[in-house]
Amino acid sequence: MPQPDDQTYTIPAPYRRMENLHILFWLLKDIGWCMLWKPLGISMIFPTLTIALVITWRTRHVTSELAHNLAIVFWISANSYWMVSEFLGFDTVRVWGNVTGKHLALLPFLTGLVILLYYYLVQKPQEAQAEQAVES
Q1: What single-letter DSSP state applies at residue 28?
Q2: Which residues, at least 6 apart from 93, have a Cβ–Cβ distance to it below 8 Å?
Q3: Separation between Cα atoms, residue 43 and residue 11, nearest integer Å
Q4: What are the boundaries of each domain within the chain?
Q5: Per DSSP, what are the bridge partners of residue 96?
Q6: Is residue 126 within 8 Å of 133, Cβ to Cβ?
Q7: pTM score
């Protein structure tokens, strides 16, 4: 079995099991949304978001993982808000101009996107430049 090096990111088995459980909760949440099973959809928000936060915390030392996992936290938040807005009927309520309750989900979606844009456009190029300087 190959040994990990500086270029390899390995996931300990307990973390991997938690990530797999996270996928299960996320799927159950979205199935609840799709099937309009409000209790299932709403009850899966907490475990899905909690595990996403734990995964983010555990991988905070790896810059790329932190950026992507933060984006996932904001994605789940936006997705959950959108689902709740539909379940509770305020998704089509205008809050300002043509902006409806559902459109407010764009705030966490865009936050996740900004985090990834920053990572790919600023942080990753800086890391690559620093790595090249060390190799020179």
Answers
A1: H
A2: 100, 101
A3: 28
A4: 13-135
A5: 99
A6: no
A7: 0.87
Within the chain, strands assigned E span 94-96, 99-100
Is the distance from CB of 29 to CB of 23 less than 8 angstroms? no
> Which is it for the CA torsion 100, 105, 110, 113, positive or negative?
negative
Residues in the chain: 136
**What letter does residue 76 receive in the DSSP assignment?**
H
pLDDT in tens, 14-67: 888 889 999 999 999 999 999 999 999 999 999 999 999 999 999 899 999 999
Task: Report residue 37: phi and psi, to 5°.
Answer: -90, 85
The closest of 123, 127, 43 to 83, measured between CA atoms, is 43
pLDDT (tens digit, 9 = 90+) per residue, 80-109? 999 999 999 999 999 999 999 999 999 999
- 67-82, pLDDT tens digit by residue? 999 999 999 999 999 9
Q: In degrees rounded to 5, what are phi and psi of residue 92? A: -105, 0
Is 136 strand, coil or helix?
A: coil
Strand partners, 94: 100
The DSSP output letter for 104 is G
